[in-house]
Structure formats: C-alpha cells, structure tokens
Design brief:
Distance between the termini: 24 Å
Structural class: alpha/beta
Strand order of the largest sheet: 7-6-8-9-10-16
Shape: elongated
Strand content: 15-25%
Radius of gyration: 30 Å
Number of helices: 12
Number of strands: 17
Length: 421
C-alpha cells in the first residue's frame, strides 16, 4: 500500500474550505431575478421623460411603467441626480434543492458499531456542507451493487463507497461514472481503488495495523499459533490486516478463521440457530480445545466480545487483542482481558469521505479537472494502538451515548449500548 504525504492532506484541507464555500452557494435557498430597462424620451417642450419597463416571464417586455415624478425640465441644474417615484417590480423567487451525495458502507450500522460511527460521521459532514445525504449499508456484494445502482437513480453529484470486493462493484461504479457522477472510495480496498477509477481513496492502513499488532504480541512474549478472525469473508481490508500480522508475528504460525456476516453456513447443522457471535464463540472454543493456540486477533468490536467469551468458556489464558474501540474494550484492556486494541478511526473515515466528495465537486465547479488534481491519491490513516496504559485515558473520548443509526442506512432497530466502534 502506498502512503500519502502531507501535501495530499494539505490539498484536502484546502478542499474542505473551498467545498464549504462553493456548496454553500449551490444550496442558496432563494434566488431573486428580474430584468428591467429604462426608457427615456425628449418631449417637444424640451423636457425629458423617464419610464421603466420589465421583462415578462415569457421574455416579452411589459408596458412602460409611468411614475408620477418622471420628468426632467430643460433648465434642470447640471451635475445633480434626480429620481423618479418608486416603481413596483415583480421578482421571481426560485427555491433550489440542495445537491445529493451518497455514502455506501458494507455492513448494517445496527449490527456493526464501526459502521454506526462511520455513517453517522458522514451524516454530520453532509449537514455541514449543506447537502442531502443518502446513506446505504449492505451485508454482501450483491446488495452493495444494488445500492450503488439505486444511488445513481437519485442523481447525486458524487458517490463515496467502501471497496471491500472491487470485482463485484466494478460494473456499477463504471455505470455511475458513465452517468457523469464522480466516485471516491474509502475504508477497505486501497489497493483496488485505481482499478475502478476512484478519484481518491481514504482509509485505514490495514496492513500496517496488522504489522503493529504482530509486533505488540511479540513484545508481550506471546508464542503459539495466532488466530486471525475475519468477520467478513470477502473483505480485502481484513485480509490485509491478517497479511500484516503474518509478516510481523514471530511467535508461531498465523491461522485465519473466517465467519460470514450472514450467520451460520447452511451445511453446518451442529451450529444452526445460533447468532453470528455465538457461532464465532463456538468455533474459537473448539479451536482452543484442539491445542497450540497462543493468541487471537479479532478485527472488530463484536468479534472481540465473542472471543473474550470463548476464552473465558474454554478456561484458557490465550492472549487476545482486537481492532476497534469502545468503553467495553477499553475496560477489557484495563482489566487484562485484552492485551491491546487497534483504533480504526471510523469517524475520521466517514467525515473525510464526504469532504473528499465536496472537494471533487468543487474542483469541477471551478472548471478544474478533479481526476487530474486527485490523480488517484490515497490517504491512509496510521492506526492508533491502545495498551493497558492508555485504555482508561481513551475512555474519556466519549462524552455521551453512541449515535443512533442514520434513518436511511440498514434496518431501523436500535441498541442501548455505550459508544462502540
């Protein structure tokens, strides 16, 4: 993966300012227009008569308006302005609808805390930029592709989509671009962004996060097989995290366990009827019982909770860490259930995805080519690691309850948990 330097960040900051200004103009609620002209005629007695004429809606000129005070005498003093009586002018008031932007994630916010925060941050950014946000969440690539096509029907000015499975999204993205809609990508899929023609990609440096996690396990003296739990089987970003830890972990082999978001596979009769967390917990318990498991790395909050339950059920001292962040995980780090967590910055990703769309649209309004100026840049966020020393400190990040899932993303069920990632 390519790292992007400070110049790209500076470009994005400039874009935030330009975008806010330009989109604010686009969304001006009222436009007042009226075209008028002045008629002037010299009379036989030397006076000058002034009248006003207004252009009608059908582009024809109305009759001359005759204000009572409309004559200038022939002996009027020079270099002195004179004025007619006021004349009523009809104006056209045009109310403009704000432009539409789409943000597409690849999990339901009611089921995945990372996407709850990501889409909520995108919604906040849309409010600040004065645009109508259409937010989507999908469980699989087919639903994601359908969401992209539905977005196109809303005639958005730009689209920001996650890219966990580029091959399945390539065609609908091309359809959006053929319709003149700019596309930026974020979250998973940095290595595939160029191949789908993304103007700009913003996301976590997933590979670096995996490398950092492997180094941390090594520093803690962990040994044995390390299980890397992939909760979205076809998500390239999660595979990148496992690739990273595979490169850096020196304590043993790295073994991947994949669990599909949709739940228990049809051919697994033993585990039918269980939720995905329960299913994952059972798989981990069984794998620990098989022996040689020294560590487990989960890649989101819910998988971490399931893994903690599994380690407790198995009565094991297996070292455990996770991507994601919440008060629950911070407490687990503080209490020694987790070695560390890797904060994956959902709010930053959601907010900057909308900012990138605003900048792309602003460049086009300024008659600059966004494709040239972005040039497929990638802004990769360096993951933040929270160990036991920092866990309590990071809890202070949350000043209130977690955001509610955006109304138009995923189903409308709610949860009453503390802020999660």
């Amino acid at each position: 993966m390519k790292r992007v330097g400070k110049s790209h960040l500076l470009t994005l900051v400039i874009g935030l300012v330009l975008g806010a200004i330009t989109l604010g103009v686009v969304q001006a609620a009222i436009s007042v227009t009226s075209e008028v002209r002045v008629g002037v005629k010299r009379l036989a007695d030397g006076r000058v008569e002034v009248k006003l004429q207004q252009l009608d809606a059908d582009q024809s000129w109305n009759d001359l308006e005759l204000p009572p005070a409309r004559f200038l005498t022939a002996d009027a003093p020079v270099d002195r302005w004179r004025y007619t009586n006021p004349v009523d002018v009809t104006v056209v008031i045009e109310e403009r609808q704000p432009p539409v932007m789409c943000v597409l994630g690849h999990a339901y916010p009611t089921e995945d805390r990372f996407w709850r925060w990501t889409l909520s941050a995108a919604d906040v950014a849309g409010y600040q930029y004065g645009v109508d946000m259409v937010l989507y969440a999908a469980r699989d690539s087919a639903e994601h592709a359908a969401d992209l096509r539905d977005c196109i029907s809303h005639d958005p000015i730009t689209i920001a989509t996650s890219l966990p499975y580029a091959d399945d999204l390539r065609e609908p993205i091309a359809e959006a671009q053929a319709a003149g809609i700019q596309v930026v990508t974020f979250n998973s899929g940095a290595e595939d962004a160029d191949s789908v023609g993304s103007l700009l990609h913003i996301g976590l440096d997933d590979f670096a996060g995996g490398v950092r996690a492997g180094d941390e396990f090594d520093e803690a003296g962990v040994s044995g097989t390390l299980l890397c739990i992939i909760h979205e089987e076809d998500n390239v970003g999660l595979r990148d995290r496992c690739d990273g830890i595979e490169q850096s972990y020196d304590g043993g082999e790295v073994e991947r366990i994949s669990v599909d978001l949709s739940g228990v596979p049809d051919d697994d009769a033993e585990h039918q009827g269980r939720t995905q967390p329960q299913y994952l917990q059972s798989l981990i318990v069984e794998r620990i019982a098989a022996g040689d498991v020294g560590a487990i790395l989960t890649l989101n909050h819910d998988s971490a909770v399931a893994a903690m339950s599994a380690v407790e059920e198995a009565g094991s001292d297996t070292a455990l860490a996770s991507f994601g962040f919440s008060d629950t995980l911070a407490d687990a780090v503080r209490d020694g259930q987790l070695l560390f967590v890797v904060w994956d910055h959902p709010v930053v990703q959601g907010y900057l995805a909308v900012s990138a769309m605003a900048m792309a649209y602003t460049l086009e309004l300024s008659q600059l080519n966004a494709e040239v100026f972005f040039n497929g840049a990638k802004i990769l966020i360096e993951p933040t690691l929270a160990d036991r020393e920092r866990a309590s400190e990071l809890k202070s990040m949350f000043a209130g309850p977690p955001p509610s899932p955006p109304d138009d993303a995923g189903d409308d069920s709610t949860e009453s948990e503390e802020p999660e990632s």
